[in-house]
Amino acid sequence: MTYTLSLGQRVRLTEIESTAVCADPVAIDDAVRGRVRASRETLEKFVAEERVIYGVNTSMGGFVNWLVPVSKARQLQENLLNAVATNVGPRLDDTTVRAIMTSRIVSLSRGNSAISLTNLEKLIAVRNSGVVPCVPEKGSLGTSGDLGPLAAIALVCIGQWKARLDGEVLPGAEALRRVGIEPMELSYKEGLALINGTSGMVGLGSINVAQAKRLLQAYLLVSALSVEALAGKTKPFDPRVHKLKPHKGQQAVAEFLWDTLADSTLAVDELDTEHLLSGEMGDETKAGSQSIEDAYSVRCTPQILGPVVDSLAWIEQVVEDELNSSNDNPLVDPDEAEVFHNGHFHGQYVSMAMDHLAIAMTTLMNLSNRRIDRFLDKSNSEGLPAFLCQEDPGLRLGLMGGQFMTASLTAETRAKAMPMSIQSLSSTADFQDIVSFGFVAARRAREVLENVAHVVAFELLCACQAADIRGTDGLSPATRRLYEQTREVVPYLDHDETITDYVEALAQRLLTQPGLG
Ligand SMILES: N[C@@H](CC(=O)O)c1ccccc1
């Protein structure tokens, strides 16, 4: 289905992801066309008046103070694209490139960048054509926006560099020829308009946020299942106690667990504490084999996932605001009949949001990592067999090895969660002297998410194994659905076998499949 951009509409971040995943075409309406034309005409008027405007009749970056006549505009703009397309490394996947292109189209369609309507429409045509520019992922400062990644895209639009089409890598000119698109011819400011913004980090960020939301949603249900499978107590989730602390996310998580576990007989309502005081002072008090209170990784679930929920809402809002912005310099506002030299290409907001996403997801992973340990350690699992190995323990090692994987991923992920947004380095003879590295932050958040999904997948595997051992009759209806969906992918393990394929399949579902459970 075509996704049409209208003037003044707020584009949802999740729409960038969904249109990129499905390769839905994007389009603009007449009001957008009118506004884009007006912005270009305003700039043309200023050029006729011989005003000095950055990237129009000046050079760029460290050569900002060099005048270049508009008669040389096409050469200047093409030189700009080639000079800054210096990224290296693995090529971004098709979905991410489409999300980045759509994010740039959203920004340019606001009609403040003075790109010609012809060239905006060509960018849209390339985005919709199946031609996917090859974008090496490493090398963006994130402040000139994402010059490197966006220049790789812009070069293909002018018939240079390289692109994929139906799985084949072709020269940009050949790729355009095959889909019947004439290369763009750039006039003054247009190369700059295509690249001088934050659309790289916003495009990749949109995918990260959409996946993080799914993973978090699923994790709330995984948490409920883990509480049941660890014979955890529900009373700490009673909404009445959460009224006593006003954090919204915490309250929402507690309410979810409370409601979900209401019909569970595996989770424990409350201990009958009456007979517990029969011992002498100093005796170990036990309620049968049960502890009086659960460990933090069960009991404090709302207090740990609450801030993750609230953080994600903030992160989504920030990246969505950036998406719906004119992130470019200079900007030409036709209503004000003004040109603004400005710094809207700066990616600090998104950089900090992506760092925050990495921290939030790592927090979730830390929780998951602790629960996995409880599932496998028989002294902490409220009666489960060691390493969830019911049949032939010792001859078999059970699920022991899964923890090696999750411990390794957890350690690696913590290192990846070190902030990028404070790593600024100066470049361009101190012209770009403080930068955001937002695209690097977004790439690292993506890596964090992938790792976290694998750790959560193993917790889910353990929880289902434990539920089978305890008896699944006691599951609540919602956790039973999750259990059954998981059993479509991984069976109860009564023999030792490699779990790699199971964990990877579950992780993929957690990131991409909405509404698990
Ligand atoms: N982001 C611009 C600078 C600016 O808009 O002031 C740029 C372009 C090219 C090379 C370096 C820097």
From TrEMBL:
This protein's UniProt keywords: Isomerase, Lyase
Query: Does the entry feature the keyword Isomerase, yes or no?
Result: yes
SUPFAM superfamilies in the record, alphabetically? L-aspartase-like
> Enzyme class, one word?
isomerase
**UniProt EC number:** 5.4.3.11
Give an example GO molecular function.
ammonia-lyase activity
Q: What is this protein called?
A: Phenylalanine aminomutase (D-beta-phenylalanine forming)
